[in-house]
Amino acid sequence: MPEAVIVDAVRTPIGKRNGSLAAVHAADLSAHVLTALVERTGVDPGTVDDVMWGCVTQIGDQSSNIARFAALAAGWPEHVPGVTINRACGSSQQAVDSAAHAVMAGQYDLVVAGGVETMTRVPLGSHRTTGQPYGPAVLARYDGFQFSQGVGAELISERWGLSRTRLDEFASESHAKAAAAIDSGIFDDHIVPIEVDGTKFTVDEGLRRGTSVETLAKLKPSFKEDGVIHAGNASQISDGAAALLITTPERARELGLKAIARYHSGAVSGADPIMMLTGPIPATEKALRRSGLSIEDIGAFEVNEAFAPVPLAWLAETGADPERLNPLGGAIAVGHPLGGSGAILMTRLLARMRQRNLRYGLQTMCEGGGTANATIIELLR
Question: Could you tell me which residue ranges the Thiolase C-terminal domain spans (predicted)?
Fold first, then answer.
């Protein structure tokens, strides 16, 4: 079976809601990273077999197969196709996984995978304005429960005994780690600056330096009057895009490219859709079983910080080394542009592995409806 390798990975800086990327259409934002990928690798875009693109809120600016319009906006030949993937927050992680699977199956030789979300222009939940997606049979199965990720985060906090103080400690640590990572320049090799209205945007702008438990304590709970989840220990609404070039080792050599990492293994899993956000736990276990690796073999973990209890519950159940968890900060500090986050996390994981020469890295994301992806990659250089 052919292997799948990543030869390059790029992303935009992450823009906060109503921030520097607010005026940029999702197709143009996507085209920006597609263009950068071609410029950096020298690959002829006409040889790309498919553009696999994650996007969650597929309405308005992001409707009608945004992957196709991203390729056209980038000026790529009309024969290059595109497909838009929705696995909720894990959409672009699924795009990466699906691209690797297609290459390993021998169906494709060269694929661009990634995703986008412009949450300023296409608000969270706007695709549900004309109905609700669950249907009477699902509601009957769960006694009419109105599914909510925020309520799920509260339930996780209760089940794992996570106090508000512990959640706020984790959130403040995310900001501190992200600040240190940005200042170190570790993201510079992957971030593609973008110019908007004459101003060059180069750095993730959601970061709030100096965030502390004391400042977070002033915020009101968002989902329960006496709850522990609030805006400060949840991910930020954001805009952003990322893209990866995936191929075989043989094709990479033909193109004069050196692979960064090998797609080692991956898994998807479902979990209780009411608690909803625990999927990364069984997905991680499944990916490790398939890989033949142990949790101790993994040098870095990226567990998406949708809400602080998600990575903390994952940590408690997996027994992973907390020093290896989200070492560069996460979505609480810099944002979570839904459909782009899986690919963005992969650029972060690659950056950490290359910085520390770590052989294996694992990425996992909770997803609406109670599913999760887990992906393991192996560093090659």
Answer: 258-378
